[in-house]
Model the fold of this input.
Amino acid sequence: MISHLQMITIYVSNLQDSLEFYTSKLGCIKTDEYQDDEQHLIWITPEGAKGIPQTTEIALFAPDKGDPRIGSASGLVFTSDDIEATYHELLKKGVTFSKHLVRHPYGEDGGDLEARFVDLDGNEFLLHS
Done:
């Protein structure tokens, strides 16, 4: 029986630039790195998830240039304890939003909040309450 989701891979064009984006703008921390003759991966996790057993990690991976997976991540959802503050903080840090913060009529406490943002390669993510 499956116990948890271990890792999600985000395909990027430049590992170091992407690591800088995810750590300095999104507040993730680097948890590990692996490199051999064929591949180079860097694992990160949101700082707030550090130390939580079986936390799903994000693997940043730079495949060959032109790989169609670069810029195609979708369906990944980030959350925070205060989504409005997080949204404004990310805006101040220069994160590009493809959909600005909106409140939906469903959910708790007057409705769910969400916004969509992109990384350096155009991978799109949801910020959701």
